[in-house]
What we know:
This protein is of the alpha+beta class and 280 residues long. It contains 7 helices and 11 strands.
Amino acid sequence: MLSLKKKYPFSSLATVIDTDSAKKKLVLWLSAFCFLMMVLELSQDMISSAVNGNPFSISDSLSYKLFWPLFIPFSLVLIKWWNKRSVTPLNSVVTGILVVLTAFAHLILFSLLLFSISSVLYKESWSLYYLLTEKLSTRLYIALACYIILWATYYYRVKTQGELSHADNRSPQKTGHLVVKNGKRSVRVDINQIKWIKADGQYLSVITTKNTYVVLDSLKNIIRSLPDHFKRIHRSTIANTDIIEELQSRGNGDYDLLTRDGEILRLSRTYAKPVKKILL
Length: 280
């Protein structure tokens, strides 16, 4: 059994980092970019027809511009997937593979749309094989480049800047509130009253000295809004280390954390090192 002596109290003002606005801005910028590219390509077709004396078909030209709006639904799917993953080497490899597959799926769907449109507008539809090979040979690098830029932009603006904003807004005072969404209500929970937070499926139980709040959130997300003395102690638990009185080894790398109220929390060996660095 180890009696805990803290080197200094870790405390700060919790802030709620809302990355939804950053995601919305990213989607708006993406939509504006796609619209701009459509206008530029359409203008280029009109100028080329005028210079070469060729007839200009608005329906043909607009059909080929569908390449750009398709970025929006595919990008939304990618952003949703990225939002649930942390930045790790394995996830980066998976994301790279996913980006390549998305680019191929984008071009295949684009070719199918052109084939369907030609079947409706013309007596003889365009060759699907020709469309697939032509689009893969002329547009694959564009699709890949756009999705890679989207990936880099997403992680820079939503992930990196969100974490920096979270760190910059912390205060050395051990006061403040954590705002949690409880159904349609937003509840201000005093940080000093939070003892631990436990995950149960898609929901979290925020245990305080007075109440327990059940919210739809994730540990990965909510810990961004907590001061440094809140640490993951288990894959399903975040604990306020200020309430810990004793640390008991279980002999297998795991520990029991004894709180001031006499309750026992399990500290997994996976999360032991950073927690022990604070507590001992």
